[in-house]
């Protein structure tokens, strides 16, 4: 189909335009942003926020969240095999023009697991927390992680958008599953999730932990380049 080929060509052009904007300093920063390990403290703080706010029901939230993340991660793997769209670094027509900061990744890239997982967490927690500060913080985190995948040469913009849509769909589905389980299997004396939005202190903790991690990664990047450790 001509329109579909035109769409893919436009997607490739947008990718090359975005991927071409790079520097050694940002290569290091984006390498931190795109990996899971530097965000472990942020994830831990998010878990602590859940435990502080929901107490005895926290295990249910974390269980559904974990199952949903597994569905997101495995679902994107399945979609990659079904669509078989080559990643930019594996595309013969583009591979010599792609700026890759770590590695090409697996052969196929549609849809992005990073984008799907991040937007799943965002969508799942948004109606649960009902806290503007935590929502904006998680949105910024999800967008930063998503952009790092384009910067690093791993995904086209459509891979990212596809990941967003997949993650949002799963986030809605698993939040409804959470409410279904709570409504059907939990006794009334427990306060319902709909009556326990995230407290202001919880939103602040999400916000400050995000910036603490981000700031630390940027400072480490500055030190590495200032003292020529790279």
Could you describe the 3D structure shown?
By secondary structure, this protein is mostly helical. 71% of the residues lie in helices and 0% in strands. It contains eight helices and no strands. It has helices at 2-19, 24-34, 40-54, 58-83, 113-129, 132-151, 157-185, 200-226. Helix 3 packs antiparallel against helix 8. The longest helix is centred in the last third of the chain and has 29 residues, at 157-185. It starts with a helix and ends with a helix. The model has no long low-confidence stretch (mean pLDDT 94).
Write the layout of secondary structure elements.
Blueprint: H1 2-19, H2 24-34, H3 40-54, H4 58-83, H5 113-129, H6 132-151, H7 157-185, H8 200-226
Helix pairs in contact: 2-6, 2-8, 3-4, 3-8, 4-5, 4-7, 5-6, 5-7, 6-8
Notable characteristics:
single chain, 230 residues, mainly alpha
| Rg calc | 19 Å
- pLDDT under 50 segments (min length 5)? none
Largest sheet: none
Instruction: Report the mean per-residue pLDDT as an integer.
Output: 94
Short description, anyone?
The protein is mainly α and 230 residues long. The chain contains eight helices and no strands. α2 (24-34) packs antiparallel against α8 (200-226).
